[in-house]
Amino acid sequence: MEVSDLELTGGEKEKALARVRELFTSWGLTLPDVPSCPFHFGLHDFYRIGEIEFDINNNIKEGYCGKFIVIFKNQVCPMHYHAIKHETFYLVKGRVEMEADGKIIEMKQGDIKVMPQNTKHRFTGLADSLILECSKPDIMSDSIFDDERISAVIAGHS
Description:
The chain contains two helices and eleven strands.
């Protein structure tokens, strides 16, 4: 399984990260000096279905994860759930439509949304947005997507 099966690479990755750097500068924030993962979830349509994750710390041994998620306007993180991971999302910048268990809310800057295990959820950027996720560790095989194409790519990557 290749990295490109899940995320952008090469010039496409650099273009997306340049856009993120511009956003962080415009927001007066410092981009964390950690690896980035611009996911297209195996669908190769990043600006429609995707997100960029910056794992600040994904500590499986100690049982926690902290990450930034950048989602561009009109970009969607597809419907999925986690059997193990419990998440809390804090919207640092932007506006996001969050759907969880069939209920849709609009998150605005400063809003918090707790996502218990086994809660199906997806989010869509209503504006270029920055989410802080605090959660149990991020284990790829614990992300179960409704879209079987994504699940197949993840299963092959785990």
